[in-house]
DNA sequence: TTAAACTACGAAAACGATTAAGTGAACAAA
DNA sequence: TTTGTTCACTTAATCGTTTTCGTAGTTTAA
């Protein structure tokens, strides 16, 4: 490997001079600088990041926590979309992205230990089974600049998809189509996302003067088509079934959708359904799904931008709450219905 | 940050002794070793990977090339599945995973430069727009241990999904259901995957004594629903349309599926379709797709395992071709048809 | 008793960069 | 001429490890 030392010898200068020439700062003559840079290029010099990090304590590396139940997190379109946005943004700003190791078979390293070990300049927490766990909390409380997605911690800047507005938009659209009996299969309790959406669901219902019977709200984990199928069955079996069901996400919706079509009901003729996320597939299905598209790339990019900002100018760094708006995709899975339909019971 | 020096002072030994105690090698007394390890734990010592890498030239870090047309590669279920497998495997073996930077706005670093800069012990090439580009070739030819997925280079161990067997299985199953007029919308030429599948398609057709008119083979890029929709239209408009269409992948299939249903045709009543990949959604649709499930996690894991093997025992390292079998999911999108149907023209 | 061998540790160089402080030359001001 | 100031560069310390070699002290062999 070609080092500064070699360049220094070749140019008959000291290593310090080479450093100054390449980093473009410090006192150095114009012509020497050019001569050095030229030779560096000729020799194919690449700086040694380990040496630099050792000296400067600055790794230009961001750690990303991407914990995943069942080990399949990377294949979730929402999270992988966010990760992709994050990656694009930080690469643009000349940082690299390394996964925070989530395997502790033999080692006893915590997330924070791992972050220190790798000398991450900053940390992005994208997805995580249990934010309240000791390990994650230790990480969030640490003094390493950290940004979280869809989770709020006092110490960290958070980028949040506007689930409140999203749910509100969705509800109001459904209402505008004439629906008055709206059910909601929400994702697992304990998640911030669920909490926000559920609160928005109830609040909007109140605003619209809708009565939401207790049995209209079921729980099914995100992405779990079986659970959403079960919940759908329960809803359809009610004495007064809803005219529209909102699902935790587009994938979970499919589970319910299958139950509905198996029963010979049509969408949106006999019942309307709405999803969340706006995954690619949602706009390819027939009928196109009514859903909220989340701008995953934007979420990831904002997270990256803020994180690097707080790394590079710590004094001006604020703990911010950045909210990214979703977009209502009306699709065709929520149909127009007449008032009578709502009162058929 | 607590360093070896601090531990050394606290224990009244030299730094060298601490190093030996913690690395568990070298000559050292049993009791001193324990004393040192104890203090290290108490102080919360974490090794400094930069210093270690600088000295040993071993970063315990794997670079992954994940290049992505349109910047959305991470959301492709196949690739993200492979990446996930890779991540799981190498973390198990105490390596970390860092993305090879694909942004060159201001910098002029090539992939290889970036790999050298980060001192990657090994490289995994998971997905890549153009394997033949100078940059990628430079990387593959370099002396850094490298493993490729679904691409073969003389220097590198390759992990390959068995596209040949997969296509053969698919064809034979379709044939067994009575189909004799089988069309294939293949992915973009230039990809190894396409080449293999296309060759297998023709070879199996020959074996089955099937006649494949030239117009039965169309091209549409992977994941591109519009292009597959166009190709489907062309096929349906033929004087002698096929009774079954094989798509580049499950996602592209949806494009074709929509065209078919828009024309009022039923699947598999009026026409049969088959996909590839076996994405989650494929088994949730009605009818379930006939497709080949690729074992993405296994592919990723194998890639990781072989890569680390060739890093840690370079002498025994072979350039291997590891083939991972897919699995036929029969689904219901390919229907049984009678001989007459095949000869209706 | 003496030499050889072994044990347990320390001293010091090295990895490749950064950076504060120092130095000699050139030049300007007094 | 002397003094002070810039300029352009060098010296040398430093970051936290690893690793080779050296060396006391102890044990064993002759």
Topology record:
2 copies of one chain form a homodimer.
Chain A: H1 4-11, H2 15-23, H3 30-43, H4 49-56, E1 61-66, H5 77-92, E2 96-99, H6 111-118, E3 122-127, H7 134-141, E4 146-149, E5 157-161, H8 163-176, E6 182-186, H9 192-207, E7 217-219, H10 225-236, E8 244-246, H11 250-262, E9 272-274, E10 291-293, H12 296-312, E11 321-324, E12 327-329, H13 339-342
Parallel strand pairs in A: 1-2, 1-3, 3-4, 4-5, 5-11, 6-7, 6-8, 8-9
Antiparallel strand pairs in A: 10-12
The first copy, chain A, binds a DNA duplex (30 and 30 nucleotides) through helix 2 and helix 4.
List the main descriptive attributes of the protein structure presented here.
alpha/beta, 12 strands, elongated, DNA-binding
Summarize the structure in words.
2 copies of one chain form a homodimer. Chain A has 345 residues and is an alpha/beta fold. A 6-stranded parallel β-sheet of chain A has the order 2-1-3-4-5-11, with helices on both faces. Chain A has a 4-stranded parallel β-sheet with strand order 7-6-8-9, sandwiched between helices. Chain A has a two-stranded antiparallel ribbon with strand order 10-12. In chain A, helix 1 packs across helix 2 (15-23), helix 1 (4-11) packs across helix 3 and helix 2 crosses helix 3 (30-43). Chain A starts with a helix and ends with a helix. In chain A, strand 6, helix 9 (192-207) and strand 7 (217-219) form a beta-alpha-beta unit. The first copy, chain A, is built from 13 helices and 12 strands. Chain A is elongated. At the A-B interface, helix 4, helix 5, strand 2, helix 6 and helix 11 of A face helix 4, helix 5, strand 2, helix 6 and helix 11 of B. The structure holds a DNA duplex (30 and 30 nucleotides).
């Amino acid at each position: 490997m070609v080092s500064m030392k070699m360049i220094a010898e070749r140019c008959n200068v000291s290593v310090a001079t080479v450093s100054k020439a390449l980093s473009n700062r410090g006192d150095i003559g114009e012509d020497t600088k050019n001569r050095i840079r030229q030779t560096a290029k000729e020799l194919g010099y690449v700086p040694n990041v380990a040496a630099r990090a050792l000296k400067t304590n600055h790794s230009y590396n961001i750690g990303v926590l991407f914990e995943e139940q069942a080990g399949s997190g990377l294949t979730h379109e929402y999270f992988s979309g966010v990760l992709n946005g994050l990656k694009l943004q930080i690469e643009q700003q000349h940082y690299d992205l390394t996964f925070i190791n989530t395997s502790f078979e033999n080692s006893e390293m915590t997330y924070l230990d791992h972050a220190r070990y790798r000398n991450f300049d900053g940390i992005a927490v994208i997805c995580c089974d249990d934010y309240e766990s000791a390990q994650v909390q230790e990480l969030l409380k640490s003094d390493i600049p950290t940004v979280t997605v869809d989770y709020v911690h006092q110490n960290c800047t958070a980028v949040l998809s506007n689930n409140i507005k999203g749910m509100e938009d969705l509800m109001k659209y459904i209402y505008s189509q004439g629906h008055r009996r709206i059910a909601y299969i929400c994702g697992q309790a304990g998640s911030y996302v669920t909490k926000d959406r559920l609160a928005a669901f109830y609040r909007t219902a109140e605003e619209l003067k809708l009565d939401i019977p207790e049995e209209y709200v079921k729980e099914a984990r995100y992405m779990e088509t079986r659970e959403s199928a079960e919940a759908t069955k329960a809803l359809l079996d009610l004495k007064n079934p809803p005219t529209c069901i909102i699902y935790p996400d587009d994938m979970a919706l499919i589970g319910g959708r299958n139950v509905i079509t198996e029963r010979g009901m049509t969408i949106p003729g006999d019942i309307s359904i709405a999803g969340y996320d706006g995954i690619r597939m949602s706009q390819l299905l027939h009928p196109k799904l009514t859903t909220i598209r989340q701008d995953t790339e934007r979420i990831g990019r904002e997270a990256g931008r803020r994180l690097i900002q707080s790394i590079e100018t710590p004094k001006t760094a604020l703990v911010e709450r950045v909210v990214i708006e979703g977009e209502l995709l009306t699709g065709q899975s929520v149909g127009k219905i007449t008032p009578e339909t709502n009162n058929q019971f």
